[in-house]
Design a protein that fits this description.
By secondary structure, this protein is an alpha+beta fold. The chain has one domain. 29% of the residues lie in helices and 26% in strands. The protein has a 6-stranded mixed beta sheet with strand order 1-2-3-6-5-4. A hairpin with a 2-residue loop joins strand 4 and strand 5. The longest helix is centred in the first third of the chain and has 18 residues. The N and C termini lie far apart (46 Å).
Amino acid sequence: MGRMERRSMRAQVKRQIAVQGVAVTADSLRLAEQDWPVHYTVGLTRLEGHPEIVVVGECDDCAERMLRGAADVVRRGTRLAPGWGLTLEGWLHVLIEVEHPELLLAAQDIYRIPGGPPVTALQAIGTDEYGELPWESGIGSELMLGPAPLPSR
């Protein structure tokens, strides 16, 4: 991405944050030898350093609704954490910590302090049609950007 494109994208994301409180941005990542759509929030970090939220493999409209729903929960005062369940678009999702949040370029570009640690993120992992998560069924774990949460005691 060239300097002008980056400035334009940054300005667009900042406008969306100013108007809607949070931006939803789209990208793609190479996972399991395939490019997958990745959508994430930009703007939750300004709420006391809350992690941004990420979804992988969702269509643009679904991801937008899911991430705006998650952002609304955070803006109402809930601080989300790894292992928490959240219903998005009618499906249970469990949050995991993203191991390499520096891949979320727009969030890092706007909120990372130069020389500081990367802005953090949580990935919302959805259940399948049987109500199972990837680490339970063994299907879809290649799309996880971090480790499965530890089982609760």
